[in-house]
Amino acid sequence: MARDDDGDEDFVTFGTALEPLEDDEPLRKPIPLHEQTVKDEKGRYQRFHGAFTGGFSAGYFNTVGSKEGWTPSTFVSSRQQKADKHHARPEDFMDEEDFGEHGIAPRQITTSLEFSSSRRDEAAERAKAVGAQAALIPGDTLLEELISPAKSSIGVELLRRMGWREGQGVGPRVKRKPRRQQQAEGGTKAYGCMLPPAGSEDSEDEYEEFAPDNVTFAPKDVTPVDFSPRLGVQGLGYRGLDPGLALLGRGADEHIDLFRPQSESRSRLFGDARSSVRRGGVAGQAFGVGALEDDDEDVYHRDSMSRYDTVLGGEEPGDGLFGWTAPQQYTKKKDKSKDASYLGKILEGFTLAQNPPEEKVIFPPPALPSNYRPVHRFRPQVDVSRLSGVSPALAQALKTSRGHMIKEDPQQEGRHQLDSGQRRTMLGEDALKGPSSVMDLLRPEDRQRLLNLRNSTNPTTCTPVSTDKSQVAKQDLLVGVAPPPSGLQQQQKVLAAWRGSNASTQTFKPFEKTPSKQARYDLYLDRLRQGDTDALEQSLDQTMTEWERSREREEFVRASVLYRPSSSSLSSRFTSAKHKEDEDSVEVNRDEEGDVDDKQNAVKMKMFGKLTRETFEWHPDKLLCKRFNVPDPHPGSGVVGLPKVKRDKFSVFNFLSVMESREMAAPPKPPESGKKSRWDVSQQETKGTSEDPQSAAQTQPETKSDHSSDPGLPASSSRGTSAASRTQEKLADLQSSEKKTAGDEEEQQEEDEEQEEEESRPSMDLFKAIFASSSDEKSSSSSEESNDEEDRKDKEEGKTDLQPANLFTITTSSVTTSSVTTSSVTTSSVTASSVTTSSVTTSSVTTSSVTTSSAITSNSHTGAASYQKSAQEELEFGPKLPPPSTPADRGGAAQICSQSREEFSRKKEKKHKSRKQNKHKKDKKKKKCKKHKHKQEKKSKKDESDSSEDMDKDDDDDDQVSTAELLKRLKNIQSHRTR
Amino acid sequence: MAFPQPKPQAPQLPQHLLRTIDCQQGAVRAVRFNADGNYVLSCGSDKSLKLWSVSQGTFLKTYSGHGYEVLDADGSYDNSQICSCSSDKSVILWDVATGQVTRKLRGHAGKVNCVQFNEEATVILSGSIDGTVRCWDTRSRRFEPIQVLDEARDSISSLKVAQHELLTGSVDGRVRRYDLRMGQLHVDFVNSPITCVCFSQDGQCTLSSSLDSTVRLLDKSTGEMLGEFTGHKMKGYKLDCCLSSKDTHVLSCSEDGFVYCWDLVEVCSPLCFKVLNTRLINTFVMVSSRNECLVSHTLGGRKPRCFRIRKFKSAGGESSFRRQVLESYFLIFGHLASDWITTT
């Protein structure tokens, strides 16, 4: 520390000091020459070459070379690294000593010039001067001087700009009076922690009274009170022994804290000078007054209670609602002007606002209309019609830039846009008799000559408007042929281009808004295609004036050049864009997924099935179907994957699918009867193989037979319901209903269901409520209009239907029993027969397979009685999933149905479904048969080998354990659990 | 009840380890039976695919050509071709006999998780982390897929093909079933990333395991849940599940090193058998259709050294794992426990 240096430490010593000579010591022998060695810093010997020959040895053995020779080790052949240029720095040529402390490029930390700032605040200087005076050692502030920031911070700069000076406090300028009052108040309000008595305040106040009224003063620079919690166990006001105070009579931090120059000395300088400089000695309340202490103060200092407030909420500043810990708005001033003055000096060019800024009324944003497109199109206000006579290309460009082709009323066009014929018709005049122009009076050859002449000069002598407007067209022309072709050349070129071109190809219609003109142009093009050489003249309206005709002629030629059919070689290279950039629509999957939240809830409640299942129409690739040996399910549809639908690209509602579905909340649609668990029905697959109107044609005969055979039976009734639902939803989904044909109700229903699902996903509570109302609700789903007799009949038939099936299971073979079953099926219901007959056409195996499938599903039943029992149980504990309908949806008829009837209809429906699904099952049956066979094989094999056979045998006909039975059991267990 | 409850049976677990095969190809990513269950394909993380004989446990052939670890493989019905997929985004069709690459199909944007032949090996279906299933034609020389099924919103983790149906499980928590015959796509929402899907052997149900440590048996046609199998641990790894060949049991790997085995009907308590006495993870269980074999393998740490295939044989006689399971092989690909423990 600089404080306690002896003076020695100001010096730096170099080299080794000589040993002090002792008198009695004999003189040393001089060191022989060979022992006088010189070592460098690292202890290596250095040979001395003599003072005149360069001092010590350098380099490599006094050579300029290195150990490797003359090439320095850093040499790199430039053959490999050409670009890598080595930039030599000055340091490369320096010795190590140069980097040392006293070298020319020291690498140690030294005080740089930056830190010895020339600009130094006078206050600090003064403070330092005073501080140095007061300090124990005069060179007290040495370190502060050494280390001081070069620049002041931006905050300080800003404050200075606003009129702040160093040493002042920050805040509004105040008059003295209120401040004193504040202090007075502060004096009374000592609650616990005593503020340090501001001794200097008094002296200041004394002459403050003479201060004029209009003079304001900067606030005092006070360090804010920091409320540090009391950690000690001593009482209030205790001040422990400060060793610094005790020993030196000064605050301990005074000389230790070198880095706080403004702390003590500054405050002292600005009026906080101590009233009395304490000398040494131990002071503090814990010790009383020491012997050396001469000021005989109040030794046993006691806090008098008068210094404390004894009344809560006495004379509080402000409204006295809160204490001094009150929030700012209560304790502080209320007048805004004072707040404004807080800003300090108002910057140049600004004045304080008299009135507070008006509160802005924030209006809510307008509700978006449903067709709102958050994209702005710039539509330059160019009157296209005005220019249309000039250049069709430009007009077209302008038109497209306007976004849409605007059909303009010819009436709104300017007067000059109409030709004489149009004007005539508008005025209701008759056509003029006689020649319409001077040209008609001329002889034909003269006319031709004139025409040639005019045409030859035409491109160059365009009207000024057209020259600058039709630059695009012109450039196009110039690209095509380097010299600007004359009118005739152009016509010939056009003729060559258009001759023989296909008329069916879509040609651009440049004169779309004047139909008569367009018609003339079309005529002209037609003639061109036919190879007519004077197509132009023929197609023009002879009744028009010559000037109009010439203008139109020019336009037609130009347009035909511009929009001539692209040559085959060119057109083969380019394909028209599949997706137009500026198209407003975007492809979106037609069937959107339903609400995920509902599904999540369903998963949480473990209600898989209807709620979590979604079915979409999906179009496999034709080749994929071929490879899978499967007929194309949607023949003729060019779609692959999920069908897409074009939607407005920028519509907000694309992204608000949830909102949409909520909006159109409709009562939950019952699932169609075809979609049922196979756990309560023998078969479950829906028969609908036809999705498209195209494919509907194929399935038409089948469904038709259905129609004709029994209009009153469930199939038709289900159709009725579907029709009803369709009418309900016609408003909702027009497009989907458009697509559908009347033939495929299954599909219709399914799709309706899908649509319904996505449109109106009811809340889980609704589902729960439906579930709670259990199975009768469910059975009402069938909602069939058929009468009871039919139902009863059906029921009986169902019994008879199943008994042969049971028989069948016992025998498991196919051919003989199949006929039995088919017969039974046919007797049971006409619809089934129709189905089977229709399927017979496909293959002869079908009938047998139908029966086998039904057998499989019912083979686990041991008899009719057991079947009934199980059937009843199934009725009770059927699928737990949402009932197929709500009464509101399907009409009241289903509700009125009696319980028994519902059961019957349910059963019937089941049967009906199974019938329907038989058809679909066909493909699987073959496999099933195989499987059975296979199983038997296996069984026989295992019989031979396995020792545990008997054990398994006594397991209830475990050999026969089919997967269906297992699943059935599983289902039973499940229903048990749900009970 | 229409049916008497099945008698409670004693825990029937496979007890005999038939064989352990040390396949020496790093971590084994998948092990698959061929169509008849006589051969086993092991997909190694050393970019190789190896073919083993089950009966002898002998090594037959190595198929190398992948650029990164092989993730899945499948053999064609006639054993003439193998398809495999890899992290190098490619699907390779191999000729079994020569071991040559017949076709290398690129097109996926990310690593390909699963691959499957269709029934006649005319189409290769591959599911990738890019969320698409690509249908590659093996008959033509086209290098573009026939169709790209991009309905999934996240990685396809598992893929199975039945006759005309394609079942995919995706990390977006949905099981999708593409019915080519009907031209329909059925989406079942499970709300947890699917790790494995498979059809039941009768083709009426789908089994899906998901990362909420649940295996669910769903009705194929309606999507209703027929069974829920819990008890195992499947939180973060793509572990497999399957049904036994007679649909009597549900098997699933677990992150605790066990293979859990539930009776399909009596869901109540899983029977689990330990594959290795470590915390290894079984990533794959497979029951071959004919042989009632079960392959599982364990996934090792970073540098596993020793890999084995173990073959379990269920005890015949007194406690059998169903009667048909006369010979049930349980093959476990994995490495020695001690090694793994030391490396971790």
UniProtKB/TrEMBL annotation, chain B:
Q: Which residues form a coiled coil?
A: none
Keywords per UniProt: Cytoplasm, Repeat, WD repeat
InterPro entries under this entry? WD40/YVTN_repeat-like_dom_sf, WD40_PAC1, WD40_repeat_CS, WD40_repeat_dom_sf, WD40_rpt, WD_repeat_MORG1
Q: Which GO terms describe its cellular component?
A: catalytic step 2 spliceosome; cytoplasm
The protein's location, in the record's own words, is: Cytoplasm
Main location, first listed in the record? cytoplasm
Which superkingdom heads the taxonomic lineage of this protein's source?
Eukaryota
- Is Cytoplasm included in the keywords of this UniProt record? yes
SUPFAM superfamilies for this protein:
WD40 repeat-like (SSF50978)
Q: Which organism is it from?
A: Nothobranchius furzeri
> Entry's SMART domains?
WD40 (SM00320)
Protein name per UniProt: WD repeat domain-containing protein 83
Q: Report the sequence similarity comment from the record.
A: Belongs to the WD repeat MORG1 family.
Swiss-Prot/TrEMBL WD repeat ranges: 21-62, 63-104, 105-140
Biological process (GO) annotations?
A: mRNA splicing, via spliceosome
